Amino acid sequence: MTIKLKLSLALAFLFAVTLLLGGLGIYYLNQLADDARAILKDNYTSLQFVGSMQKALLTRNSDPNSIRTFETSLRRQEANLTEEGEKELVEAVRVDFDRLRSGNRPDSLTAARIQQNLLQLGAINQQAMFRKNNVAEQTAKDALIWLVVMGTFCFVILFSFIINFPGYIANPLRELTRGIQQVASRNFEERLHFKSNDEFGDLARAFNSMAHKLDEYEHTKLADVLFEKKRIDTLIQLMDNGIVGLDEKKTIRFVNPVACRLLGVEEADLVGKYAPDAALTNDLLRTLLQHLVEPAMETQGAGGLLKIFDDGKESYFNRQTHVVTLTRTGENQPVAAGWVIVLENITAYQERDLAKTNFIATVSHELKTPISAIKMSLKLLDDQRVGALNEEQKQLVDHVRNDADRLLNITGELLNMAQVESGQIQLTIKAVKPVDLVQYATSALEVAASQRRIRFVVSGLSDLPAIKADPDKATWVLVNLLSNAIRHSPEDNVVRISAQQLGNQVEFVVRDYGPGLRPEHRARVFDRYFRAPGQNGQVSGTGLGLAISKEFIQTMGGEIGLKEDIEPGAAFYFQLAVA
Predict the structure, then answer these.
(1) By the 8 A CB rule, do 343 and 310 touch?
(2) Where is the Histidine kinase domain (predicted)?
(3) Domain end: 334, 351, 368, which one?
């Protein structure tokens, strides 16, 4: 007999037991419902009609509607004759009522007979109610007895079923689980010994066959595994990057010649050693193991830039620490298998990047001198003592001045970016009043704002504490944010500058009412050289202002960002610590 058939029979038995108990309960509940319905419909209703007729009979002289009420109740009672003797009494009441209503006989005698018949009619229905109530109680007792007997019988059978049947399923599974765990531990000599003619027996025979084949495979494929290991070791030895491999216990398992050269240690002195012990006398190895000693740093691909003296010069290496996990055969959850530390030589890229930064800084610095000379010449041209200019010449001078200002701004941004990329941002941190920063920035942009008829609205600057900042860098950031707000605001509009204290920091917010930023541009607005298109699809600026602002604020220990859900326009903010 198969397990499927056994489970089907067991479930069919449970279904039959449930059906039996449910059917028995439903049958007796219907019986009780019928008895209660008979009492209410047959007898209680008749008592209501009798009471109504008695009341109408007593008030016939004072209530003009009593005769109609009596007639209605009598007609309803004539349609509800359910007990023996009810029909004769109702017919007698009908005869006397007709006489009473016609007035052919004395009222008192007729009313007395009607009253007497109504009392007998009520007594008949009361006795019927008591009799039917006894029948309902007997039905309830029978139902309780049958349910107790059948429930006890079913409970005994189900209890025996619950005790014995799970063992029939669980014991072979427990034995199979134990065997699988042994095979997973590479004990391929494990066998299952329970015998059965169902699927469990087939499973045991299949498991024993599998274990036997794995045992043979373990012994016949060992040479192939060793060959593949040598192939992988050779590839690691030939790689140009420095590679150090550790197991889950932080024991060094392999190290290639490049890593040995950088560490200044022979391979034989590293392989098989506990890495933290070997790092006690090696500063570079101790630096490489920082991500392993600090659990919070143990993330996939955790890296960092290292400067190492190699090949007769200072070289740059990108450190990558990879967590190695593997899933054993037959398992679902991966387990830790160690770490691989890779040192990638990026000296050539770093030198090119440094050369690019130095070139930008040099060119920007050299451009500032002729641009300043151009501005000085333009200022002299505006002097009336040199000579008067006609309107066309003045327009040309204005165009040249605007172009010179734009070039000066671009060279300034390039110089700042060169400082940022070289890591040589020079700060002079001091206590600065927020009102001074805002006044200086708004004064510097007053002419540019007036040309577009844009007003500055300042709020929240009173009673703010001083902040710790480099006044030049902080002012530069605020000027950059205000310049962007002016450029993207429509004419005849306002730009709002507000400040407030948030804990131990002061937050500055610059808000404009222009077209704002698209959702896909918000995440990239602080990236270098990124320029968001304007309302007409055109781009302006160098894409460096916000990137430089971010570097300046973060170097001063602050935070800068873009406010969410601001419409219309955009609101940029930065926060600096209280002095």
Answers:
(1) no
(2) 362-579
(3) 351
